[in-house]
Amino acid sequence: MFVESVVLLLSLFGVIVVIFFLHHTSSKALLSHIEDIRADLIGNPSSNGFNLEEIKEDLLDMVHDTIGNMQPPNAWDHLLGALAGPIQMWAMRKAGIDPATGQAIQTVLPNLQEAFQTED
Question: pTM of the predicted model, to two decimals?
Answer without folding.
Answer: 0.33
